[in-house]
Each structure stands twice: as structure tokens, then as C-alpha cells.
Request: fold
Amino acid sequence: MRLSNQTLSQLPEKVVIPSYDRNNLKTKMVHLGFGAFHRAHQAVFTDIVATKHGCNWGYCEVNLIGGEKQIADLKEQDYLFSVCEMSYDNWSTRVVGVVKEALHADIDGIAKVLEVMTRPEIAIVSITVTEKGYCYLPSTASIDLNNPLIKHDIDNPATPKTLPGVIVEALRMRKEKGLKPFTVMSCDNMPENGHVTRNVVLALAKQRDRNLASWIDDNVTFPSTMVDRIVPAVTPETMEKIKKQLGGIEDPAGVAGEPFKQWVIEDNFVAGRPDWQKAGAELVTDVLPYEEMKLRMLNGSHSFLAYLGYLAGYLHIDECMQDPSYVKAARHLMINEQATTLRVKGVDLQAYADCLLDRYRNTGLKHRTWQIAMDGTLKLSQRMLDSIRFHLKNGTQFDCLALGVAAWMRYVSGVDDAGKAIEVSDPMADKLKELVANSNDNQERVKSLLSLSQVFGDDLPNNPCFVEKVIKAYLSLRDIGAKQSVKQLERIY
Reply:
């Protein structure tokens, strides 16, 4: 038996279910990227506003590439899905009901997706497709015109395959029909995610029609956001726990995440928005300081623990937290090497760091280090390298950050400290494999990987202080392994 309108009444009393009339919801938002994070984050905020304040903003969920089963499952169960909060051994569950429609570009057709996006009532197109979905170069924060899918969209603009291509075509159609534009809101973990989204959309639009690009530039807003909730990839074990929470009813679209959630939004919408602040979101004029805080302190320490933890045999973040040396190193990284680079005001950063460590200790999450380690070529810059540039400019120390970069290099070399092969998941996996294969396992390996200008730019590979520190850290990881290299950091505390 599956979750549906018919089975809602059979759920355990402790499960929160939609108390609002779902028939009153209007599809005013299209969300691109119906993944676990969106379900556990933005959809929950919207569901809370609908539950407590009668908000009638509903979603059309869209997957452009992959995730066919997610959309099929959602349709089969009347667009309902559950979100569980995992706090050690204590779980709580709500059923989210703010989805009205769901589409997959390959199954329903891109024309249908564009038709929905050009309805007059669509006010927001929101996004969670991970960094790679933007088809951008982190070193320039603009579009990668050499991306094969971008080349396709330039040649075939009416049948786009990429996120930027779909948005540009939908906006062109709205312009031609004389409709008001929608707001484009990225909710992915990138610095200035609204700025990046605007860059790629305008760059692609200019390739097609400069008048269209000017219209978008003048009329469309791209608010930045900072999103925070740890949502591990769903496992069979998670599915069984969700089923138990639902009293034996199955929900293949269900997800589970930690109790903590945060959403900081630049309040810049051209056609209105739900009252997300009533569900705890923070509406601000400048998101960047909050983005930097989260990307460097949370995501940066997460990547640090993921690479060094996986190399040492720790499969989950909570296992890293059982190693005192890893806890000390993560806290030193956050307080002494990340917090000092930030511009955010009015936040107790030591308390924030301690809060993050408590969240990492949550044994209910089982957040895989391998999952966090994915796509490092797209993540290193905002999580570690920008902070390193700050330290190089100011002559301050960055031993933990250097070890984190070196750990990424050991990780993408493809073998952990026990000699087991690592499955490296990265959009540049083939290039990484080539660089590793053609370099010796010493300083040559470091310099080979530093040649990736898309990741390191031209400045860092030519900075002797940076190169020397990373080589030293890399050789330590090679010679004594991750656990001992992390333990040796204690000399700087």
C-alpha cells in the first residue's frame, strides 16, 4: 500500500498531514530539480506556510535530466511525499502536499515543460540541480560554451536540454506573448548563486538574441539564497524507516534529513512570493555574507572531513566525529581558518561552529563521506580555495585548508589508505584520471592536478607558499596516512 490521498487517513496520528484544502492550491512555481534536498527544504517551508497561514502557492516539479522514477512515483501517489526528521534515534514525519503537478522533460516532452513555464500565473522558477547543472565554469562564474549540451542549445534553442537553455527559451516565449517575467531563484550551494544563474542565462541569451538578453537583464530578477539542511542520500535502510514511520505505508518519494533547517533569501521578486518568513526563512537585502559563512564553515569542513575521513576508512560523517583528532581539526578549520575570512556581522561564529559539530555527531543521519566528496572540482573553490586566497593575501596560516586540498588530491588519485580503489564521481573524472595516470605519486602529482586552471585559476599554481604547503601535506598523507596527518595538526592548535 502506497502513500496517496486515500491512505492519508490511515497514517499514524503522530504524522503531520496537510490540513489545508489542496484543491485551492495554484501552480505558481515551477521547480527544476525534484531531488531529495528540495523535498526536505523549500517544499517543507512552503508546506508549513500553507498549513499555518493558508498560502495557496503550489509547485509543478520538473526533472530535466535523470530522476524519471522520482517523477513517476510522485504522480502515482497524488503528488504527496513524506519528509522525516532524523535526530539520533528519534524520528518525526510530515507529509508535504504543496505539489500540484510533475513533469519529466524526456517523458512528458520539453514542449510541455515550456508550456507550464509560460503560463501567466507562474511567478517563480526555483532550482536545485547541483553545481554541474548550471553548465558554468567556477573560475569565471559564467557559462561553459564548450559544454556539448550548451552547444546543442545554441544550435537548437527551441528544444533545449540544459537548465540555462530551458530558462532562456521560456523567457523568450513569455516575452513574445507579452507576459510578465518570472523570478529565477537558485537554491544550490554556490557563492552568489543568483549571480551565477543570471550570468549563465544572460550569456546564453546573448548567443541567441541580444534584444532578448537585454529584456531579461531589465525585467528578470535572480535573487541569491543560502540554504542549509543536511539531507543524506536515501538508502534502502532509510526507506524501511520511512515506511515504519508511516505505519507500514510505502513512500518511494520520501526523504529524511536532520531537524535543523535554514533559508536566507534575497528579497527581490518581480511577481510576488509565498510568505516563507512565516515558516522561519530570513528575508534580507544581501545574502552573500551568509552564503560565505555556510559554504566555508559548513560545506568547507564537510569536504575536509569527507576526503580525510574516506581516506581513513570512515564511511559516514558521524564516524569522523568519534575521532577526537578529526573533531579538533574541524573546529580549528572553522574558527581559525574559515571564520576569519568572513564578512557576516552579528553572528557568534564560535557558537555556529559548535552547532555544526553537534549536527555532524547526529548518528541518525548516516551522511556518507563519499556523497559529500562528489564533484570536488566544482566545490573546492568556494569551500576552500577562496579562503586560502584570503590567507595568502594577509599572510595568515592555512594548514588545515592545505591538508584539505591535498586530501582531495589523494582522493582523486583513486586509492584510500587501505589500498582500496575509490570510485571518483566528478564531472572532470576522465581528466582527473588522465592527470593521475601521467604523474608520479609525489610533488609531481600535486603540480599535475594544480594545472587544472578551471579549479585553481592561474594564481594559486604560481604561488610558491601555496604550492609548498600543499606538497608538504600531500606527502604526509602519502607517507603516514590521513589519521596521522590529521593528528599531527594538533601541533598548531
Observations:
- The mean pLDDT is 96.
- The chain has two domains: 8-284, 288-492.
